[in-house]
Amino acid sequence: MKHDGETPLTPPAAPSGAAAVFGDRIELAERFAAILADTGVSHGLIGPREVPRLWERHVLNCAVVEDAFPEDARVIDVGSGAGLPGIALAVARPDLEVLLVEPMLRRTTWLEGVVAELGLRSVTVHRGRAEELAGSLSAPWVTARAVARLDKLARWCVPLLEEGGTLVAMKGRSAAEELGEDAAALGRLGLGEGVVTEHGGDVLEEPVLTVDLRLERRRERGGAGRRSKGPGSRRAGSRRRRAGRAGGEPGRQD
Ligand SMILES: C[S@@+](CC[C@H](N)C(=O)[O-])C[C@H]1O[C@@H](n2cnc3c(N)ncnc32)[C@H](O)[C@@H]1O
User: Fold this and answer.
1) What global pTM score does this model have?
2) What is the fold of 21-232?
3) Binding residue positions
């Protein structure tokens, strides 16, 4: 698709499955999709070719991971880029406190504008590399998509995790293979045996996979961030309560 960089592209209509995930926040999700198709493209945060598949590959793809997090959880999204998964999660789950971590000024400026435009009071934007923010930010939950291979991602994210916290790494089909290959390195970081979890199988053609890794060993350095509800109880079934509203749609995981 050719794009002149100025004319806003039209996002596709939300697939029926989106209503099951976003509930009464579906209009907010549609506004996020429209922003991604407009300034997300013109500011170079996503490619114009992503626009026709904005929902299945990006907005819905990220939002289905919401069932990993308990009520009122504090979640750091490392390498948020265009707000993925962080903004999609915050739209789907207003109870979450979401911290977007992104090193590039151009991207954090865009993210701050989107957060303001969508009125997402539960979201804050933090400029910096994950490894630089260790000691000033922490949470019981850290998530990331398409940032780095598992062992490197874990090296960056573990210092942001509170003791007993969990890294929820969005991964593609190779999740189990990557986990197997990096298991020794992950163990050395104090992470327990990883679990590959499926999300969104009811609304996406292909479920999204996450590798979930709990920090088992006490860290030497404590985080300075405010604590919120820990990872003891997943929010399993939260979306099942809303699941009667819509059917499935095709998608993918990167
Ligand atoms: C391929 S993009 C993915 C963006 C988004 N997570 C997504 O799935 O669309 C990778 C992002 O990670 C950011 N990044 C790279 N290294 C990082 C680090 N050490 N700490 C935090 N973010 C980083 C980049 O600036 C970029 O925005």
Assistant:
1) 0.87
2) Rossmann fold (3.40.50)
3) 79, 84, 130-131, 145
